[in-house]
Write a structure and sequence with these properties.
CATH class of the largest domain: Alpha Beta
Strand content: 15-25%
Order of helices and strands: HHEEHHHHEEHHEEHE
Helix content: 25-40%
Number of domains: 2
Mean pLDDT: 88
Number of strands: 7
CATH superfamily of the largest domain: CBS-domain
Structural class: alpha+beta
Distance between the termini: 53 Å
Strand order of the largest sheet: 5-6-7
Length: 231
Amino acid sequence: MRHRTVQDVMTQEVVTAGPDTPFKEVVARFHRNDITAIPVIDDQGRPLGVVSEADLIRKEAVLPDPEGHFPGRRLDAHDRARAEAETAGGLMTSPPVTARPGWSVPEAARAMDRHKVKRLPVVDEVGRLVGIVSRRDLLQVFLRNDAAIREEITHDVLGQTLWLAPDAVQVAVQEGVVTLTGRVPRRSLIPLAEQLCRAVDGVVAVHQSLDWTDDDTDVPVEHPHAYRAGR
């Protein structure tokens, strides 16, 4: 089984800014390239932070209503300084949460969820920017067609990993939803098969109605007094 990595789905040609890039130039780069965030890098190409649309719109949010009905959003000293910043270095969220090219798609997704970010600059072993990966990029795995998912489950999961006979389990895939039917030699293989199938790129859910030949999960428990007479 081969899982797609961040390197497989990331954007390699990254639009960047330097810490001294003016506010209006950052906005212009967003517009010209149809992007919603831009990494800020140093002279060695290492990410210092990220400027997003949310960082830019903060400048508008603190402005008072022209008619005087609303005084503007109140911010703490740190956020007010960012709202009033004139360059990317002052606007950016720092330090950036980064990813590595070899991370799996689930690893990157967990990092985004944990840190509540929508994208991750991707850095090499010395911390230089080599790409950027977004939520949309990670969702590419779900564009994989059903035939490819079925082939990987049948060949790699059931055949090469679990060593099941070719006709033991039937696999159906519709819109990424996998259904397993048939019989496995041991009951303990059922949760393992489900887990491995869920890990296949593009799988949305797994349903199964598998039978088993031997119930190796039903291990008899010895009576606590079974050997007392022989002591």
